[in-house]
Every structure is written in C-alpha cells, then in structure tokens.
Amino acid sequence: MSNPASEPHTPQGLLIDTTRCIGCGACSLACAERNGLPVPDTARRDADLSDRAFTVVRAQGGRFVRRLCMHCDEPTCASVCLVGAFRKTAGGPVVYDESRCIGCRYCMQACPFTVPRYEWDKVLPRVRKCDLCAPRLAEGRPTACAAACPTGATRFGPRDALLAEARARIAAEPGRYLPQVYGAVEAGGTSVLLISDVSFAALGYPDDLPHEALPALTWRVMSQVPRFAVTAGVFLAGVYWITNRREEVAAEQGRPAPGDGPDAGREAP
Prior knowledge:
By secondary structure, the protein is an alpha+beta fold. It has eight helices and nine strands. The two termini are 23 Å apart.
C-alpha cells in the first residue's frame, strides 16, 4: 500500500485513445513486470482481467482496447468495504490494504466495471487489481503502462489536463472521435479516461452508468427512509443484491456460483 505522506496531492490519471492503440501489449508487459506477475501472452486478443493480470488489451468492437481498474473518483469498492481495505488517494489511485481485508468480496459485487479479482487458489487470498502504480506516482514517476506505450495511446498526467486534452482532440478532429470522453462523468467520474471512434458499449464498457457517484445515490435513497425501515430494507435488499451479484461475478470469472456443484452450501475461501 502507498504511503499517504508521499502521495501526490493533484489527482493524476490516464487517457486511453483507442484510435492510437496498435495492440502491441507493451502496457500489459510493463504492468506485469512492475507488479511481479506472470509474463502475459500479448498475442491473445480475448484476455480478461485476473488475479495475475491487472491490465489487458482486447480486440473488441473492431479496435484494441485496454481493460484495467478505472479508479473512480468516489469508488463503490471503498464505500462497501466493511474494514476500510480500499481507499481513494488524493493523487488518484484507488489502493488496497491486504492487511485489513477479511475476504468478504463485497468490492467485487459493487464495482460497476467488474474489475476486482480474487485469489481463489491461495490459502490466504487477496483481492487483486491495478493500483495505478501508486508507489511510482509517489516517486514522481508515471505509471509503468504509460511509460511503455510506444504510440501515445496511453497518456499519464493530471486528470484535469488529460480531460482538457481529450476534449481538444475531439474538437480538432470531430470526424475521428465520438463526442464523448468516457470516464468524465460515468459513475461520478474516473481517473482513467477513454476516447474512441466507436461506441464504448462495443468496446465492452457499460454505457448505462449514472453520472453521479454510486455511493452518493445509495445514500440519497437511504436518507429518505425511516431509520427502522433502513435497517430491515438494507439487510434484505443487500442479501438479495449480493447473492445475485456473486452469481454474475462467478459466471464472468468462470467460477461456480455458491450453491452449485458438489460443494453446494459451502463458500469458497
């Protein structure tokens, strides 16, 4: 986990331009090297995030597109974590403290981008995801993926400056880009921004997210309900929602959902 005393105080981020990505996989290789992960197969075009791959380049929608943690401005993973294992830093990264984690996996259920992955095969499992190279940022260096990109498809810098650059590119070449910067407002805004010439839904990104931070929406609803009803309502709705989200996440990650198979009735570690 990064040291709060050495974190940058200006929000940093990434700008990913899918029209410039050539699918070389240099970002994935740099990420793996920096995090001590297995060397990825950069020739794969259907790779997905895992506990051993924090960023991947996929061939989707006729383009190459990266997948990684979006580092939401108000992350739902942090808002649902019972023990404060996740937090958003002033410098942009959403970081994880494994010493606090109790393995509830609520972060996995809550993430609107389905990013966090679990070490299912470990005796002492952790939740794994991109940390936006928080230690490098604390040293004043860019993310490993941005430093490795040979085409400028991934740019690192202050989020506000990247947002301005993205809008300037769109204005300068309206025939090349869609008039949208993904991540500017989605889910309340993210530190990872994308621009493209094809729809973000075609690239595999959810296109139905609210423009307000999800934790704020939850609080707004709950604050209007009498306290006694909140207790019962949150519990029942939470159980229903988490159960269904576990099944969805298990299906997406190729794991049996709780209650399926010969080990029915027994939770995964």
